[in-house]
Amino acid sequence: MMESERLRWLRKNQSKLRVGKYHNLNEYNSNGETHGSNTGKRIVLPSSYVGSRRYVDQLYFDGMAICSYIGFPDLFITFTCNPNWPEIQRLLGSVHLKASDRPDIISRVFKMKFDELLSDITKKSLLGKVLAYGFPVYRRRDNGHTVLKNGIQVDNRNVVPYNAKLLTKYQAHINMEWCNQSTSIKYLFKYINKGYDRITAAIVPNDDGTSNQPQNIDEIKQYIDCRYVSPSEASWRIFSFPIHGRKPAVERLYFHCEGQNSIYYTDFDRINTVLEKPSVTESMFTSWFEANCKYPEAQNLTYSKFVSKFVYVKKKREWKPRQKGYTIGRLIWVPPTTGELYYLRLMLTHVKGPRSYNDIKTVNNVKYDTFRDACFAMGFISDDREFIATIKEANHWGSGQYLRLLFVHMLLSGSINRPRHVWSKTCHLLADGILYAQQRIANNRGIIFPIL
């Protein structure tokens, strides 16, 4: 019911909310378009909604950003609630109830156990010093599923990888596996951020399959379809317990070309009123320029490194020196097809302390007209370094299939000068997953073929 109310509010109110570029609104206003209802684009199910597809995708990207900054994780630990814990049975035994009858008790006890386990690992260094960690929380009922191996029934009690100290202390299934392998990390982060539970459903066509009518995309409906909320998940969410966590924190760094910052407004807003707001031209990115002018130490930092020393105050729309802790900066990914925005992102990975867009376009005291020209002057384009760097960066979070599709788009765009050179430098990344797929198709793990 609570989730349905939130989704109902989004459905009724999101149609009133629009987003447009600053320079576009100026053009609309000049051309006589005065009402917000005639401009912009609709917002559907945003990444700010907990559990949405965009939400879990951002968690995946954040996890991969931590890996690229600190390194691959060493341990993959699964901690499962034990319904026979004394703390649970003490409350249920006197009233003759089963653990499944009181998901609220299960959730509260597991939360306390989980917090203690996290403290043992991260603060008390039971397994060694921890540089970074992350976790999702899943709520799934034990359905009694077992595996039959050589005629012997096997369940969680027979899982081999474990830690004796943790197992003895918590009296629960705690599976602990070594996972520091580059080939499995992307799958691992996609697995733990795969989203909510779904019930089984059959797909049935609603016509004879010959209709060519375009189908309207309703992300809220897609989210609700087959959505399954177990009693334990419902109680966990009602208590407002966290469904994920990570350390260090990851700051998502947005950027835009000049005059291209996003402005949010409603159907009822008049465009000239929106444009008259003092903060209409301000953004996280332009505030970075101001901070570089104000703080000398900021002039030696790139945009992604900047957040390790400064924190963004959203209400004031300004950057302040960080007092404690540290944060990893993650530049929002944009594909090469975005043109100048892509080249701006490429320059942001190298330029330190710019005070304006012109500073980013300046290379060796020469100001260029476009970010693409600046990239060319930096040598990113002439020898195809930008494309090699793009594929290598996308490899931190993208699957092999995505990398191959990205390479195809680069080839079709005609912008690569030496395709064979780019292939030779990235073929081991582009081939990721092909061998495994062929072995699975042939049901033969012995298949090996070289990369041309």
Automatic annotation (TrEMBL):
Listed PANTHER family: ATP-DEPENDENT DNA HELICASE, PTHR10492
Pfam families tied to this protein: Helitron_like_N
InterPro entries according to UniProt: Helitron_helicase-like (IPR025476)
Domain named Helitron helicase-like: residues: 2-133
Name used for this protein in its record: Helitron helicase-like domain-containing protein
Domain of life: Eukaryota
